[in-house]
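hey m, so remember when u said the tokens were messed up on ur end? i reran from scratch. heres the input so u can diff it against urs
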Amino acid sequence: MKKAFVVLLSVILICTVFAACSNKSKDQPTTIPTATAAPYEKSTTDTAVIKNGDAAEFIKSYSAKELALTDEEKKECSFLTNDSGVKIGDDYYISVIAAYKVEEKGEDGKTYIKFDHRGEYYIRYDGKQIMRKNIKEDNPEKEYTELKVKELKTTEAEKKD
């Protein structure tokens, strides 16, 4: 008799636990929302017509004057891309940064690498708009200057139909 009572009590307990879990509202979030510190909304670049190294090479094809760099800056800068896009206004863009790689010795004797930004450029996912962020105050009334769009050439072979 005691065994039957224990089994019955266990079955009732298990059914109660499953019932309580299944009654959770679908409107409640399953994760805790977190605040983002980034000023831009990030996105995958899968739908972009140009990305990664092709985007960096494309921006390098512009003249130093168009990029608001000196000839020396353009020659010495590395052009870096991110594997996620950014949302500016209503559109998504590939971001390309022109920067100097700077190595510095810290107080602890270790060598640290920093990047000294010289320019920020954005290629809209459809490739029909190229913008340069005005970081040197060459045009303080506008945050971005639009560049003339050149023909996009990509080397990536992953174009899928």
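this time it looks ok to me. Residues 2-22 form the longest helix (21 residues). if urs says something different then somethings off w ur setup not the seq
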